[in-house]
Amino acid sequence: MSDKALETEDVSVVFDSLEVFRNLSLGIPRGEFVAVVGPSGCGKTTLLNLFSGYLKPSAGRVVCSGRVRMVYQTDSLFPWQTVAQNIALGLRNVEDKNERAKQLDQMLRLIKLDDFASHYPHQLSGGMRQRVELARALVGDSDILLLDEPFSSLDYLARLRMRRELARMLDELPRTVVLVTHDIEEAAQLADRILVLSDRPARICRELRPGLERPREPTHPAVVEAVHCVLMELGLEESKPQLFAESPVA
Amino acid sequence: MTEKHLPIAVRLLPLFVLLIGLAIWFSFSRLNLFPESVFPSPVAVAKGLGTEVRTGRLFDDLIASLFRVTTGFLIAVGLGLPTGLWLGHHFRSRLALLPVINFFRSLSPLAWIPFAILWFGIGDLPAIFLIFMACFFPIVIATVGAVAAIPSIYFRIARDYSFNGAELLMKVTLPAIAPQVITSLRVTAGLAWLVVVAAEMIAGRDGLGFAIWDARNGLRMDLLVAGMIVIGVIGVVIDRILVRLMRISSVRWGYER
Asked: Within this chain, do residues B128 and B223 fall inside the same structural domain, yes or no?
């Protein structure tokens, strides 16, 4: 068995006349947290859809070894089910009833929503709902977690909190993770490896390894440095700002 | 804020309005602007209602009308809901059939009365047919709309968690459309109650609609008003029963967010 959890070999994706990927080859080792950033519409979500099997490549091969779960950008909890019922979806393949109840209980405690088990999604805050979405994807015996801008609907502070939450949850339940995000700081704070995609047809134009343990502080120099490198790559920043060094001392 | 949290005095407001209405009615009838035979007083109506209850006729009429409404309405739901689900999921069928369904929905069910009598004679059947015609098309349209409005992300989740066909229907589609469908059931049940009265006036030998018609023919305006009151009260009761469906915890999301 390969040590790669996810792999694309010379993958091309073409929608009508729109070429999204041309000969993309990429391997993601088991247990790695990869963040994918890049311009809007460059094919980030398409990459996740390839990994989840929702989309077949026009050419090439996608190998996915393990059970995949995806967390979406839009609210995807079933509003007619309680928090516990929504999370229990992720336990459908666990046959033993007692085992299911036990895992559900552990998960509710892990996301600190044990008091909200019988609440419905519309009775929760955005951050709580997002925790339930993550819980549904992490519970049970999944191996690979695909995250499609999971925190984009939250405000900045809630996003910072969710990053910590995610790092804490992954500590408890390690997974191979692919995070697609517009939030470069989020990528720098969470990922083992950041892939910067170019415009269509997308190729990987830069790979970065912040090389720090999680959780990282958003203002840690390595995180700031990684953000700077990505912004440079995307042509959104020219040279490193020297704001603090050059400001006059009163 | 739910009604339970309101002070008693506020919760009794509808009763006050009722009493004021009665007082106005009573004062008008005391003014004798119209003769008693044209504008019956509350006292005469109460007496008439009492007679109808004692003779058991009111009860018989009520049962006859309720039977027709329930039967016609349930048949309309039983056929309308699956038709709506099917059309909601099949674009081409929807494209083909929706204009026809809209045409029949816009047609007053009372226009069918002559055919109802010719085809089904007098009694339960024509009334049930007319109620069906009144309810079926709006239920189909509401269900189609509700199915079409289900966010596609729910089906994606169902696919991710490997739901089978039956689960897709029972655990995604039906719960997702439940709030909208319940709202349409409330509206159509009201419609059914309106239609049964009209149907019985023309194609009935019993029922509340016939009772009103009979009272009119006998120039018994007191009995006519008594019938009107019973019809109004039952209509409210039916609605209150259906409102309870909206309080089921797994459909409240549709009304609260």
From this structure: yes
Render pLDDT for B193-237 as a digit per residue (tens, 0 to 9).
999 999 999 888 899 999 999 999 998 999 999 999 999 999 999
Helical packing angle, B208-217 and B174-203, nearest 10°:
30
**Shortest Cα distance, chain B CAs vs residue A80, angstroms:** 5
**How much is the average pLDDT of B40-65?**
92
Q: Do A78 and B175 touch (CB under 8 A)?
A: yes
Where are the CATH 3.40.50.300 domain residues in chain A?
1-66+143-215
**Domain total in chain B:** 2
Rounded Cα–Cα distance for residues A120 and A125 (Å): 11
Predicted ipTM of the assembly? 0.86
What tokens appear for B160 in the block?
């991710």
Question: Going by CATH, does the domain composed of A1-66+143-215 fall within 3.40.50.300?
Answer: yes
Residue B257: CB partners within 8 Å, gap ≥ 6? Answer: A79, A122
Claim to verify: residue B25 and residue B79 sit in the same structural domain: no
State whether B156 and A54 contact (CB < 8 Å): yes
Same domain, B187 and B98: yes
Is residue A250 very low, low, confident or very high in pLDDT (cuts 50, 70, 90)?
very low
A70 lies within 8 A of chain B by CB: yes
Mark whether B149 and B123 lie in a shared domain.
yes
Ramachandran category for residue B27: left, alpha or beta (phi over 0 → left; psi -120 to 50 → alpha): alpha
Reading the block at residue A17, the tokens are: 């006349």
Chain B contact present for A85, CB below 8 A: no
Interface test with A, best of B152, B155, B156, B157 (most A CBs within 10 A): B157
Nearest to A79 among B161, B162, B253 (CB): B253
Do B104 and B172 sit in the same domain of this protein? yes
Instruction: Supply the range of the domain harboring residue B2.
Output: 1-33
- Global pTM reads 0.84
